[in-house]
């Protein structure tokens, strides 16, 4: 990745604590609402799914596309975000 | 299938496929299933690829495995179980389904069929291998044609699949490839004549290759080939051919029929356009596009020119009409005046005589329309011209008579004049200041902007003021406020004394029926409004020395008159 978004840097820079799901890179208002309606209201819930899928890129992206209707870019951003966060804090 | 297996099974299967399986929970289960399906599909594809490549290399079983992937699993099993000896019916069914699914597969399925019918012909036709070409070629060809015909008949539904063998050896004389059918022999016979067919076949193959090249060069691979090519094609036959071309009948309908009488055009299914061909096509396309654009532009230009031209023509016609009407009115006026001075001359002119006067004989025909329009226009829009019937030299004519309307008493042309003073000698008026506080004046009621006409009426107003103040040479700036309803004129003098004089010579005078009043304006206010006046020092002079506004002797006052 040549450059990361501001949102990405913000998220990766600190422990996620109680952050909302929309704080994840690639998750905007619409995707956030969809995820919320499926029970993924906090970023750490999405992290849980990410970890359950064993940080598998393909599966996680697939899952995000299915559950929130994300496009490839958004899903990849989100994956990258969680991945980097895990590298930093896990 | 995948949805029914349990978690452990799923895990097991994925592990078998070398996947690192995570926890399978409710939320992840379908993802893993999808993954499994994908993996299985990939595997299948790989298998198929491998089998196809195998079929090209090895001769016996290759054809089978490639076909298997196309067929249902049930049919698959049947074929496998009867590998050594499959019933003809079964095979023909396979063949028909193959033909329906993909005509390109034809050679493979043919080979399979031959295999099963103990024709002892191995594998697909290797075009480049000369070894043992002859026998195989002939047989494959004969079988191919038979099978094809049989398959087609099956497709048409006219012949049942039970009669495979009968139909396959039945020589149909209506077929165009009669020569081929005649040459067709039973497998036993073919051994004797194999060399003969080898040569003819290889020559056909050569023809095919050259023709393909030819077609590619001429039309590109996805273009239709014209019938002249088909003539050549007719000599090249069947089997191999179907895999390279899509066939079309004369009407442009697609057909699988190998009956060359019906085939009119060919379409190649493989792309290998030579560079020159591509270049030629691109140039052609570009040329057409440019041509269309140019055409559109030319059309647009033409339309615009036409619109312009017609507009110009209308304008010139209108001008001509107006000028003609003016000349007619002149003639009529002249006639009227002549009749006033000399009672023997009639005050009207016959319409046709006017026409003869105005339009020379040579143009009368071409200007007939114009003349009609002029007559109509005069009738409708000119109230001073009356149309009458009059006897002239014993003949009844439509005539025009000029009706002189006496001009209004105070004609507009009459110049505006200073008519006199309203209040007697202004200097002695008690309202008048004995000195001028500022050099600037505002003069009201000099004109009424709604009744003024012409482009230079403000010059006449200016002249009137300057003429009235002719003895005063101190007026350096004047502005006629043409838009003011009060008829305001602003005036600046170079000295207070000059302003005082101008004030007394203008205030309380009648000008053109209006009482002129004058006020002093503050100098700063004046400069604010007319910045240019700050630098004007030259005394103004009237535009002419005719003293038009003073030409009428002053009356004393309107009050005195009444």
TrEMBL record, chain A:
Pfam families: SAM_BAF. The keyword Nucleus applies. It is found in: Nucleus. The gene is LOC106470668. Keywords: Nucleus. It comes from Limulus polyphemus (Atlantic horseshoe crab). Its main location: nucleus. This is Barrier-to-autointegration factor-like. InterPro entries: BAF, BAF_prot, BAF_sf.
From TrEMBL, chain B:
It is a multi-pass membrane protein. It is found in: Nucleus inner membrane. Pfam families: LEM, MSC. Residues 1-43 form the LEM domain. Keywords: Membrane, Nucleus, Phosphoprotein, Transmembrane, Transmembrane helix. It comes from the Eukaryota. The keyword Nucleus applies. The keyword Nucleus applies. This is Inner nuclear membrane protein Man1-like. The gene is LOC106459664.
């Amino acid at each position: 990745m040549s450059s990361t978004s501001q949102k990405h840097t913000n998220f990766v820079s600190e422990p996620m604590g109680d952050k909302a799901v929309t704080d994840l890179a690639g998750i905007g208002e619409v995707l956030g609402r969809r995820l919320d309606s499926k029970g993924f209201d906090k970023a750490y819930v999405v992290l849980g799914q990410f970890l359950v899928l064993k940080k598998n890129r393909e599966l996680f992206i697939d899952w995000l596309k299915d559950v929130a209707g994300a496009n490839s870019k958004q899903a990849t951003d989100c994956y990258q975000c969680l991945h980097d966060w895990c590298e930093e804090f896990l | 299938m995948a949805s029914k297996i349990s978690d452990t099974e799923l895990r097991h299967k994925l592990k078998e496929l070398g996947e690192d399986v995570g926890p399978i929970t409710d939320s992840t289960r379908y993802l893993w299933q999808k993954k499994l399906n994908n993996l299985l599909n990939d595997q299948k594809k790989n298998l198929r690829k491998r089998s196809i490549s195998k079929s090209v290399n090895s001769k016996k079983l290759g054809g089978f495995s490639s076909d298997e992937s196309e067929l249902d699993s049930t049919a698959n099993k049947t074929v496998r179980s009867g590998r050594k000896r499959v019933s003809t019916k079964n095979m023909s069914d396979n063949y028909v389904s193959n033909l329906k699914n993909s005509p390109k597969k034809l050679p493979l399925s043919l080979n399979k069929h031959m295999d099963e019918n103990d024709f002892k012909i191995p594998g697909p036709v290797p075009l480049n291998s000369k070894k043992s070409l002859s026998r195989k070629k002939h047989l494959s060809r004969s079988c191919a044609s038979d099978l094809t015909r049989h398959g087609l008949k099956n497709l048409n539904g006219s012949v049942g699949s039970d009669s495979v063998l009968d139909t396959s050896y039945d020589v149909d004389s209506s077929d165009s490839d009669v020569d081929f059918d005649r040459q067709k022999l039973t497998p036993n016979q073919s051994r004797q004549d194999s060399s003969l067919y080898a040569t003819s076949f290889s020559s056909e193959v050569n023809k095919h290759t050259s023709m393909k090249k030819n077609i590619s060069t001429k039309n590109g691979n996805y273009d239709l080939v014209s019938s002249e090519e088909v003539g050549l094609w007719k000599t090249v036959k069947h089997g191999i051919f179907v895999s390279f071309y899509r066939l079309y009948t004369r009407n442009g309908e697609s057909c699988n029929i190998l009956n060359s009488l019906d085939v009119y055009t060919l379409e190649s299914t493989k792309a290998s356009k030579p560079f020159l061909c591509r270049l030629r096509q691109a140039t052609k396309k570009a040329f057409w596009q440019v041509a269309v654009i140019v055409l559109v532009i030319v059309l647009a230009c033409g339309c615009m020119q036409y619109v312009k031209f017609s507009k110009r023509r209308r304008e010139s016609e209108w001008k001509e009409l107006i000028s003609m009407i003016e000349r007619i009115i002149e003639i009529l006026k002249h006639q009227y005046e002549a009749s006033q001075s000399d009672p023997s001359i009639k005050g009207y002119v016959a319409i046709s005589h006017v026409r003869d006067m105005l339009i020379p004989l040579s143009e009368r025909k071409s200007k007939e329309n114009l003349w009609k329009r002029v007559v109509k226009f005069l009738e409708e829009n000119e109230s001073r011209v009356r149309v009458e019937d009059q006897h002239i030299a014993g003949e009844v004519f439509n005539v025009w008579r000029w009706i002189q309307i006496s001009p209004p008493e105070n004609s507009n042309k009459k110049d505006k004049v200073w008519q006199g003073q309203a209040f007697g000698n202004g200097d002695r008026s008690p309202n008048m200041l004995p000195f001028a506080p500022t050099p600037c004046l505002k003069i009201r009621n000099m004109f009424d902007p709604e009744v003024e006409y012409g482009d230079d009426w403000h010059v006449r107003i200016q002249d009137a003021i300057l003429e009235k103040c002719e003895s005063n040479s101190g007026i350096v700036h004047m502005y006629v406020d043409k838009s003011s309803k009060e008829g305001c004129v602003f005036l600046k003098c170079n000295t207070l004394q000059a302003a005082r004089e101008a004030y007394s010579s203008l205030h309380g005078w009648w000008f053109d029926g209006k009482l002129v009043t004058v006020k002093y304006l503050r100098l700063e206010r004046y400069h604010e409004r007319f910045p240019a006046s700050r630098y004007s020092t030259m005394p103004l002079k009237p535009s002419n020395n005719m003293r038009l506004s003073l030409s009428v002797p002053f009356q004393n006052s309107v009050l005195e008159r009444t």
